[in-house]
Amino acid sequence: MGHAALSISSTGAAEEAQQNLLPLKSSSSSSEIFPAKSETEQQRDVDMQWRARFSFAFGVAATIVACIALAFAFFSHRYGNQTIPSFDSDSDSVVGRWGFARPLKSLNKPAVILISTDGFRYGYHWKVPLPNINRLRFNGTEAVPGMIPVYPSLTFPNHYSIATGLYPAWHGIISNVFTDPTSEEKFHPGIIDQKWWLGEPIWESVVRNGLIAATFFWPGSDVSKGLWNCSLPYCRHYNQSVPFEDRVDTVLAYFDLPEEQRPSLITLYFEEPDHTGHQVGADDPHISEAITRIDQMVGRLIDGLDAKNVFDDVSIILLSDHGMVGTCDKKIIYLEDFEPWISIPRDWADELSPVLGLRPPSDVDVKEVYQNITEALNSGKVANSEFLQVYLKEDLPARLHYSKSERIQPIIGMVAEGYKVEMKRSSAKECGGAHGYDNEFLSMHPIFIAHGPQFGSGRQIPSFTNIEVYNLIASILNIEGAANNGTFSLANTALLPSR
Ligand SMILES: [Zn+2]
Fold it and tell me: Which UniProt keywords apply (predicted)?
């Protein structure tokens, strides 16, 4: 609209200048017929000629400026679209800008290293120089602004969504800690009994397709399922005391194996910067130290792959499960404030914060509990009540995909960014960091960076939900994946076509 309007007005100016010019030529050419003009008249004619020349020059200049503006608008529109292409952009425009996938040089088949650096919020990479992560960013493909976690933006639901392409209601790990309402057993992160872990994780898919997978930690990777049996040398049971350097070196050693023993998929997991983020929040100098350490590990990996002459052939997907936000300044909702309307015992709260997941005993009417909580929140007598939104789970926004599982508690409370729910007032340490909030919050978005033969260099793609990563990996490895909640939009957009 802007350049169309500019075009019309500038054309009008040129026409106006020409119309001003024509009568002057006419009067000039007919000057011999008419009587000689007075000095004043001659001066007026000269003035008019200058005015006409000025108008003409102005008209020409305006036309040139309009043409330049149109050309600029056209090219900026064109390249603007190509810098961040939409998922429905056709493959021709992607090819035109980003070229084709590079053929493998050293390896005979594709290899993917999937790295999770826990709690690496999108934007941390601007805090301090991160030369190694930036090497992947600038020569690879990055999601801007970050990747979208699934709800709740917690560690176990998200890692397992990345691994399976399923929302938590489908893969069963609906939170880090929860109770199965049928068996009344409790799930916690140390449980590797396969009955909890639904769906087919990518390492199982790789093995089902006749390839080798290796995991150096990933939530769910030490669960035996189908053809996947977590055993050495391709899988280790989780032990957070294993130094990061040992994890990287083990991954590198796989590339020294004979080809028939070399994994096609390797997962690698680091607990940082999540661990530091919980202690100090997202905006503390200690976060810079934690992400610098991760950058050093990425550098160790790149250098090792370089030394083995396989760096250009390996697809490195560096991502995280969720972001982090500071919790401070008395941003707390206390359940003890609800007591005039309803008393909520601690054991009703399967989860407390940032997801309030309430499962009252079977002899208590859930809807009555919900109504009493709503009355309390609307009373104006509960501190910070406007920052807690409580739902019957079937009424949660559909975009959260968080209702179709018995494991999800019947009453869910969502708290505002940076707020917490606690049972009662206490002297407990208040400030720190948290995640688990609405996955729409930018603070909950983690990084997604992909580098390898099929990824464009220096390319940015729009944010996508992490359930798309499963099909992306399956596409790189050219294997048949299991049914999942994802699409092929990420794979179709991010992966360059073969020649
Ligand atoms: Zn996490």
Answer: Membrane, Transmembrane, Transmembrane helix
Strand order in the sheet with 265-270: 213-216, 265-270, 111-117, 314-319, 448-451, 141-144, 459-462
List residues bridging with 187 in a β-sheet.
Answer: 178
Q: How far is the CA of 197 from the centre of ligand 1 (A)?
A: 18
| pTM for the whole structure | 0.81
Q: Which helix (H) or strand (E) holds 268?
A: strand 265-270
Please give the distance, rounded to the nearest whole angstrom, from the Cα atom of residue 323 to the centre of ligand 1. 8
Give the span between the Cα atoms of 55 and 17, in whole angstroms.
Answer: 5
The set of catalytic residues is 155
DSSP string, 290-316: HHHHHHHHHHHHHHHHHHTT-TTTEEE
Alpha carbon 222 to chain centroid distance?
26
CB 344 within 8 A of CB 335: yes
Taking the centre of ligand 1 as the mean of its atom positions, its distance from the CA of residue 118, in whole angstroms, is 5
Q: Torsion angle, CA of 475/479/482/484, rounded to 10 degrees? A: 0
CA–centroid distance, residue 322 to ligand 1 (Å): 6
If you measure from the C-alpha of residue 271 to the centroid of ligand 1, how many angstroms do you get, rounded to a whole number? 8
Task: Please provide residue 462's backbone torsions phi and psi, each rounded to the nearest 5 degrees.
Answer: -70, 160
Whole-number Å distance, alpha carbon 265 to ligand 1 midpoint, is: 21
Place of tokens 């007598």: 381
Q: What is the 472 CA–ligand 1 centroid distance (Å)?
A: 21
Strand partners, 325: 434
Report the candidate in 499, 497, 496, 498 with the shortest Cα–Cα distance to residue 141.
Answer: 496
Roughly how many angstroms between the first and final C-alpha of the chain, as a whole number? 39
- Per-residue model confidence as pLDDT tens for the chain (499 residues): 333 332 323 333 333 333 333 322 333 333 333 334 444 444 444 444 444 454 445 455 555 544 444 444 433 333 333 333 344 444 444 445 688 999 999 999 999 999 999 999 999 999 999 999 999 999 999 999 999 999 999 999 999 999 999 999 999 999 999 999 999 999 999 999 999 999 999 999 999 999 999 999 999 999 999 999 999 999 999 999 999 999 999 999 999 999 999 999 999 999 999 999 999 999 999 999 999 999 999 999 999 999 999 999 999 999 999 999 999 888 999 999 999 999 999 999 999 999 999 999 999 999 999 999 999 999 999 999 999 999 999 999 999 999 999 999 999 999 999 999 999 999 887 899 999 999 999 999 999 999 999 999 999 999 999 999 999 999 999 999 999 999 999 999 999 999 8
